[in-house]
Q: What sequence folds into this?
């Protein structure tokens, strides 16, 4: 399905795949492009060589400043389709008219690392969506976690300075496992909830297609009657939520640092379009103070069991970018880009972001006209009295550029609210000017404990291991001890285990939160399980029965599974089967399951390592062995859950195992 934005971007497209003569940027045809203009064949280059100077000058300025945070990202185009009208909550056209298909552009990113860092590091993931609505652009700029480290935007520079590579040696890249970050966490207990999310499996997603997204902040929806509701936005992946294990994520970073962006790109190219359903949590304005947490606090979530998520529409990403720089790198998001019917709350972190994002784009994109870059342009007309500035690409007609004016009949003129003009919600505000924090924001630990209480046993083990790894990389005893003090306010057992693992001091007094609440929605075990679009490594150790292999591969394909045939060397088999990878290029961390076909007396070392690593990472493993004794040399047992003998078991059992995703009992 084509989105509206396609035709608009085509107006700015140069098709370099078509036959064309080489020209300068001014359109002058160029006869030679391999040699600069010289005074004699061995003489000096001449300054008059305008072609050389233009080509080199453009090259020298090809790079723009990368984003301070979220530098490492990838994006795609798509559409949003509303399921049912939300007119009882909002006047926003794209949320009330179910007949409309709204084009979108979505960018996913990591936070800490530079553009050259790896995809699979432990980190928060940015999840930003630009809706090109008929009323203007609406940017939902969020993360894959519903809360944040800090409550007030004035501390954001401090958080980022602490998180980024340390300034004296620019180490580490793409990682939070270092002293300055954990020093910040230990000194800022409001981060307690977020750090539990960051140390959880949510921070190492299997795929960008398999993670949730959240708007993080509390917004307002306003209907045509002026009635307001508080709202939080959710993205629910149709494929369910799935993560890597830590060892797997590290292997992936070495084997394919572009794993996530490649996975997204290839899925779209194949037609396996990633999908997320949009969900809303809505609270009536009169119920603002009904809960045991402050709904404006960005370090708090709204438990889904108390405020259900209403599913209202679906986003489908169906087109890759044509040029990464022009689209993904130059796209400019801003939480202040809203449309009529959507407004802000007094969340102090959101309030600060409303300033910061425009300020950032002025630096990155060269001036105030970044909205004219094709990827940022709205699909609806825009008219105002803003003129000139760096990179002005619009030719304005007329002599007036001010309001009010009489020479041009006061055009362009403001649009009344009842005709679509944006009008801020008339919230009554009063109070003394003060720097401080509301007492309702002072509960730092109960939701951190809620998160821990809600995790499955294997998720708890992974979280404790993550804390132990991260703090184990710190050098300062002060930093380690303060982090354990923080954990002691959340859960005593976690504090004890981490302190023991990193040789830190455990506080004598148990100060853990007494909260016993759970929220099943916070555990990733309560997700969607299906085999769709997962990948299987088909390992050949010897010559396979190609007829049987063809039958198995057909079943995999019928269940929307991808596969790669891997052997000692690339080549062809009967039945038009292709060996596409070798054990030098493939790795078990890049696949969701493995199928071993062996008819030799021994399993070769690379194959053995492959199946053992698949087994260690708790993934489903199928085998077709001419002699079961060959498995004796490995750590893999056919009696283990999630291991399937395809000569004794129907392949559908293996596919059911792939849908199940992992067999965590192996960790025990």
A:
């Amino acid at each position: 399905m084509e989105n509206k934005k396609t035709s608009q971007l085509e107006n700015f497209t140069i098709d370099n795949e078509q036959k064309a003569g080489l020209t300068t940027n001014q359109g002058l045809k160029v006869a030679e492009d391999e040699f600069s203009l010289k005074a004699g064949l061995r003489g000096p280059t001449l300054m008059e060589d305008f072609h050389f100077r233009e080509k080199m000058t453009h090259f020298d300025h090809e790079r723009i400043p990368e984003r301070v945070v979220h530098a490492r990202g990838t994006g795609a185009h798509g559409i949003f389709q509303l399921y049912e009208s939300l007119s009882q909550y909002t006047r926003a056209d794209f949320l009330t008219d179910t007949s409309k298909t709204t084009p979108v552009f979505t960018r996913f990113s990591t936070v800490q690392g530079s553009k050259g860092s790896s995809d699979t590091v432990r980190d928060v993931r940015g999840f930003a969506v630009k809706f090109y609505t008929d009323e203007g652009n609406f940017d939902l700029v969020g993360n894959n976690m519903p809360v944040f480290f800090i409550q007030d935007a004035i501390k954001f520079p401090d958080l980022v300075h602490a998180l980024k590579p340390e300034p004296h040696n620019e180490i580490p890249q793409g990682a939070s496992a270092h002293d300055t970050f954990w020093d910040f966490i230990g000194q800022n207990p409001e981060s307690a909830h977020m750090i539990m999310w960051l140390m959880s499996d949510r921070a190492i997603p299997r795929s960008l297609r398999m993670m949730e997204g959240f708007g993080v902040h509390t917004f307002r929806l306003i209907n045509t009657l002026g009635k307001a509701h508080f709202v939080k936005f959710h993205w629910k992946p149709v494929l369910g939520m799935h993560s890597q294990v830590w060892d797997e994520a590290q292997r992936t970073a070495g084997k394919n640092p572009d794993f996530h962006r490649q996975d997204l790109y290839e899925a779209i190219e194949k037609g396996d379009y990633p999908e997320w359903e949009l969900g809303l949590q809505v609270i009536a304005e009169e119920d603002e103070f009904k809960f045991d947490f402050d709904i404006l606090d960005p370090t708090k979530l709204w438990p889904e069991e108390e405020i259900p998520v209403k599913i209202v529409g679906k986003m489908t990403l169906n087109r890759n970018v044509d040029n990464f720089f022009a689209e993904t790198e130059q796209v400019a998001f801003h939480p202040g880009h809203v449309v009529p019917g959507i407004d802000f709350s007094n969340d102090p972190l959101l309030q600060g972001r409303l300033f910061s994002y425009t300020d950032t784009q002025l630096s990155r994109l060269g001036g105030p006209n970044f909205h004219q870059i094709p990827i940022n342009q709205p699909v609806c007309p825009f008219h105002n009295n803003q003129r000139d500035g760096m990179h002005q690409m619009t030719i304005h007609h007329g002599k007036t550029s001010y309001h009010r004016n009489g020479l041009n009949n006061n055009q362009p003129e403001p649009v009344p609210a009842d005709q679509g003009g944006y009008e801020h919600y008339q919230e009554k505000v009063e109070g003394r000017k003060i720097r401080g924090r509301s007492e309702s924001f002072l509960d730092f630990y109960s939701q951190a404990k809620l998160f821990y209480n809600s995790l499955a046993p294997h998720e708890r083990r992974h979280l404790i291991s993550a804390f132990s790894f991260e703090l184990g990389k710190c050098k300062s005893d002060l930093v380690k001890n303060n982090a354990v003090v923080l954990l002691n306010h959340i859960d005593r057992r976690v504090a004890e285990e981490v302190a023991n693992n990193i040789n830190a001091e455990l506080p004598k007094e148990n100060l853990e939160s007494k909260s016993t609440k759970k929220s099943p929605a916070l555990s990733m075990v309560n997700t969607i399980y299906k085999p769709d679009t997962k990948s299987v490594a088909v390992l050949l150790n010897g010559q396979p029965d190609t007829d049987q292999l063809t039958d198995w591969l057909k079943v995999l394909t019928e269940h929307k599974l991808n596969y790669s045939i891997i052997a000692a060397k690339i080549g062809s088999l009967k039945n038009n089967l292709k060996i596409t990878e070798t054990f030098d290029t493939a790795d078990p961390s890049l696949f969701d399951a493995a199928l071993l076909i062996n008819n030799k007396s021994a399993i070769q070392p690379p194959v053995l390592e492959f199946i053992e690593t698949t087994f260690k990472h708790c993934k489903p493993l199928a085998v077709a062995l001419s002699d079961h004794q060959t498995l004796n040399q490995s750590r893999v047992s056919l009696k283990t859950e999630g291991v399937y003998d395809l000569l004794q078991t129907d392949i559908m059992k293996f596919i059911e195992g792939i849908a199940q995703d992992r067999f965590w009992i192996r960790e025990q």
The chain has a mean pLDDT of 94. The longest helix spans residues 348-364. The chain has three domains: 73-185+192-376, 447-522, 535-667.
